[in-house]
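Cont'd.
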Amino acid sequence: MPAPSLGVSVALFVMMSTGSPVRDASGAAFPAAHQTLPQPSVMRVPGQLRLQQTPSAQKPPDGFEPISEIPPEDRMPAAPMVIAAYAFVMLAFFAYLLSLARRLGAVKQEISRLESELKRSGRT
Amino acid sequence: MPSWFMRTAVACAALFIAALVFIALAPYERDMGLVQKIFYFHTPSAWMFLTAGVVCGVASARYLANPSPRFDRVAWASAELLVLFGAIALVTGPLWARKTWGVWWQWDVRLTSSLLGWMIGVAYLLVRRYAGPGSDKLAAGLALFGIANVPFIYISVNYWRTIHPPTSVVPKLPLSFGVPFYLSVTAFTLLFVMLLRLRVHLEEQRARMDSLYLSLDE
């Protein structure tokens, strides 16, 4: 196999380091780096995972799909996350309401004190 | 507490209880199972976070154009709610992601822009608290950056490569998922309106207190 020319080597280097398409003298684009290099393994995104495992199989769903049952081993690890999420939401609302009530109470107390002071001084 | 508060709070609590019942009855999602139930509180809180950003931005823009204290009070109140609902979205999201994606956090466009929006809200509150005289207009300018970020947060999942679900998930929800979800959205919206009104009421009372101090000094 003949060694690539300097121009082609530079083009390949730019392409692989930036991912942007590089064109040859005739204007045809080299394939982008992400199309030629092996893809990194993705995280557990259900749709993408299924697509990678069976490239020619069914199209991944673009929405939620109900299921009547899931294996018990899949249920338990999720429970602490769900409980933590709902508990945090409730605690956040409760804490904010409490903070609002305290601030409002303090201001109203100050208002009544000032009003009585104004009344005493006869400047209502 | 003002007279309207108790009625609204009871209605809000009833809606939340109904939402929780329907969430418990909703089926498990095929791929994610139980953990998908975080969606029913995560997404409405994220929507309220974006709504608060819009309300804060619009009220701030109007305050800069016409410095009426009414707009300033609404902007300040909604900035607090932006931080509250944003914190909920940013905490419940990673709890969901840990089980579904295998990681707590990913620096993708939706998550990063949401964090940026939340930090703008925090910056708004810090400016209001510590920047002294003129902080109202400084914070209003900051809120304009916040509102500019809102559409970017929303559409980012449709234009950039991301592991976050796209915006097409919600319109395509089956009925069994849709009923608890929209019930939850209604409860969150009512709660948002109630908290906004209560927070604005607090600012009105503070303004009244300030005028009483001035009357005493005269």
